[in-house]
UniProtKB/TrEMBL annotation:
GO terms for biological process: membrane protein ectodomain proteolysis; Notch signaling pathway. Residues 431-506 form the Disintegrin domain. This is Disintegrin domain-containing protein. It comes from Amphimedon queenslandica. The keyword Zinc applies. Residues 199-430 form the Peptidase M12B domain.
Amino acid sequence: MNGYFTLLILSLLSTGILSFEDYVQYYEFVAVQPSIIDTSDRHISAYLNFNAHGRNFRLHMTTNQHLFSTDFKLKLHKENGVHRHVAMDTRHIVIGHIIGEDNSIVHGKIKDNYFEGIIHSQKETYHVEHIKNHFKEHRDFKNGQNVVVYKTSDVNFTHPTTCGISDKLLRIQESAKHIRYSSSFSNRLRKRQSDGALNTCSMHVYADYKFYSQVGDNDEATTLEIMALHITESNIIYRDTTFQNGDQSLTNYGLAITAADVIASNSPSENPLYGNFQVDELLQNFAAFDFNSVCLGHLFTYSDFSGTIGLAYVADPDGGRAGGICQERTQTFGGELNLNTGLTTLITFGRRLPQAVSVITTAHEIGHNFGSPHDPEGTCAPGGSQGNYIMYATATDGTLPNNKQFSSCSRDIMGKTIVNNGDCFILEPFFQVCGNGIVEGTEECDCGSNSTCKSNDACCRIGECLLEPNATCSPNKYTCCTSDCTPSAVGTVCSRGDECLVESTCKYPLLPSSTFLSLSLF
């Protein structure tokens, strides 16, 4: 059977109940308590300082402004048919860096006086999870210890894996293989070509009741935060990947969350995913939901499939078969379905998966939606000290360099899929935040928080990001602006030169930045 027609299931073949120690060789219990130094209606800024694994971590984090679309909504499904949209405070879903460490990325959540997330340093990735995720039994935790911290290099996830094939779901995909080429598809493609750089796959994430109750602690905010962490990690990987479509390089393609649903009822009449399903049955039931308005729908569950931890429909890079990114709702022998779907479960063989494994699983399943099958043996599955890539048939844990990258085989197929099938992509979301000290979008200035504004920029109105009535410019936005809020005289030196920058003078009244030297490297 053609590999592109294969529905790929990531499975673990092992037996018995596994413990956290079976997955992670070494971990430390740590007390973390972030300090929120600035807050507004739209964002927070926080610092965190703690010691673990023989080093000090000094983190700076702010609200993740690129994860949620401006019209993001969360729908909560409650008892007695009560479905309501909930206004979610997403300010505490953060992204940042390790202070003083270039090319570091930190993301997660800051809530209830602790941080939970992922820390990417130059040499290692650290996972920070709440203790209760894996240690529910009573322990005498000392000195306010509230998280467990472990390195990906200490994750021991060597259980053999396989790729299963579901004949039923294969037939569903094949029965709808010609429906993509519709008039609406053509119209969407023409719109995409005229709109320019639309580089973001919009996602509708869904949490079933098992995920809400067991992972989200019966709280919709916690549930959203954990889903957001998984999509953020995938987004970081995807935007750092250069996909190929022949000679065409595609950069900065990624993901954003435009909608979320949380099923908070386990009543059979109110929970459309109620029951114990086989993994292919659960995905088919999930695909019956309407995801026409988004690029992808992804279900997070806490269903134990005795080894299977992820499942997704695989896109055809030639666009001739239903499934994967931007697939519209289609009629199949299984009914009307949205085959732009996939799922991740956070449990197998009775134990919750370490975060290090589940986030890669989500990236892997989305990779199928983007058209990549599993990596074939050979150069795209080198193994050894560098490890295999994300789309290798065996589950990876991120411990080796290749584990968080796509192979050239995957990049080529995914690039072709983006070009041929990605007609529904949107602009990368961005929230303009007044008060974070960064001049963004239509802001005339940004002097930071109310308490520090006037000491930072006397030209800027507190809390409005507009110039004072008598101000012409802001020195925080323009190099050639004086402290009295007027343009510098032409010829004024505004930046001294060094090995990278030529000396800059104000040739025009307002000069935003210095000019880089042109360097000939060859």
